[in-house]
Amino acid sequence: MLRQLGGNAEIGPGTVLNDPLNSPYVLYVDPSIGDDNFVGGSYSTAGGAAERIELQRLECGYSPHRPFKTINRAAIEAGIITSKSFYARPEETADLVSIVVQTGVHILYNQMGAASVTEWQSGIVPTSDQLAAFNPLASGGLILPRGASICSMDLRKTLIRPNFVPTPVDELADASNRRAFFKVTGVGYYFGFTFMDKVGANFSHHLLDSFHFASQAELTEFYTKIRAAFGGPNNTGGISQTLAVPQPSEYEIVGPRPTSGNQTILTDTTTSASPYIFNCSIRSNYGIGGIFADGNRVNGFKSIVTAQFTGVSQQRDLSCWQKYNAAQATKWSTSYFTSYADFITTDPDDVRMNPKRRSAHIRAINGAIIQEVSVFAIGQGIHHWVQSGGEITITNSNSNFGGCAALAEGYRTSAFLADSNWNLGTLRVAANLAGETNNVRKIFLGTIATGTANSATVLQLQTALEADPSNANVPLNLARDGYSLPTDSYVWVENIRGNDFRAR
Q1: DSSP conformation class of 502
Q2: What is the pTM of this model?
Q3: What's residue 456's pLDDT?
Q4: DSSP labels for 97-148?
C-alpha cells in the first residue's frame, strides 16, 4: 500500500542512488489540505539531482498527498529549485517547473511586495505577508519565474481569487496603475482555471488583469529576494549566486529581436517561447481584464499565445458607467444615474462605460503581439484592443454583448525597414460634417400650423403636402429627386420663437 502511494521510495545517505518519490520539477497546490512549511537543507547531499533529496520534498509541496497550500508558495519554490546548481544539466534549461493546482478556491496574494526579505529559517510557516513579500514592490502581482506553468484538472472547479484589488480610479494615460493576478515569463503554460472577483468585494476590478508580462527589473528583484531568503548559512540548499538571476528566456520572449530589422542567425531561434494561456476563463461581476500585454516590459518578439480563453466580465459598479444628458454642460456623467434600475432602463444610446474605466479582455500595447484562437469575450467595454503598435491576430473567436468588439489606436514608434523609401502623396480622412455646410441640401416642406394641437408624432401644416401619385406616403417635392420619407427619418423644424428641434 505504501509503495502504491509513494512509489519505490528507497532512500539512503551519501552517494546511494535514491528514488525521490516524484519529479523534482513538479509542484502541487491544494488549498484544502496543503501546507506552506519551509524546510532547508538536504537529506542526501552528494551528487546531482538524481542522487540527492531536498528535505523540502519530504515535507510538502512535491506530492498530491502533501501539497503546498498556496500558489504563492509554489512560485517561490520554483525560484528556489531553478537556482540550485545541482539541478542544472547541460541538456536542460531552467524552464522545467510545472505547478499542479487542485480544485477549490485559491486565494492569490497579489498585493505589492516588500523592498527586501530576511532569511527564512528552516521550519517556518510563512504568513500571507511573507509570501507576498516576493512580489514586485512597485506594482505587485505574483511572478511565475523560469516559465513556471500552472495546470489543473477542472476549469470550472479551480477558482483563483485575488487578495488585492486596486482602488477603482481612472486608468492613467500610460496604464501604469494597472495590476495583475499573474506576471508570466517565457515558456510558461497556463491551463484549466477560472479567475473570479475578490471575496466579498462590491467595487470595480477594471484595473486588475489576469495576465501581465514580468519585466527583467521585476525578475531581478525577485531573484535578489530568493538569494537573500534561501542562500544564507542557515539554508544549505545549494542556492547558486550565479544561477539565481533572470535568464534571457524569461524576459526575451521567443528570442532576441532583430536590431533595426536586421535578421541574423541569433534572432532566428526558438530559445524561448511565448507564454501560452489555454482553456482558462473569467467569471467577474466587476470587470476583471484578461490579457494585458505591454511590449515595453519585455524584449524579443513580445508575444503571447492564447486559445479558448473565455472572459465573462460584467460591471455592476455604477462609478464605471456614464449617462448622457444633453441639458447639462458635462454631457456624459456618472452622477446622472439615480439607481441600478435607472441604469438598466436607460436608452442604450445614452449609456456608455467611462472611457477611463473600461474593462477589456485581450489588449496589446507598445508593440506586443497576441495570437488568439477560439477566444470569447462577453460583457467587457472593449473585447480586443491594440494601442501604440500592438497586434492581435484573431481566429475563430467571438464577441458577445459588451461595448466594442475591436479597437485599434495610435501608431508604432518607428516603421519597419520594408516600409522605408516611400513618399506619402495623399492622406484621405473622413470629413468633418460640421464644416460641410455648402453640401447640405435643404428641402422646404411647409409651415407648421398655429393653434393646432401638434404632438410628437403628428405635425399639422398650414398647407397640406401634395402626395406623389405613385406613393401617397411620400411628398411630391421629395419624390421628384428620388428621396423617400421613411418612418425613421428626421424632420428639422426651424423655430423663430425659440430653439430649433427635430423629430421623427
Answers
A1: E
A2: 0.81
A3: 61
A4: -EEEE-SEEEEE--S---S--PPPPTT----HHHHHTTS-TTT--EE-GGG-
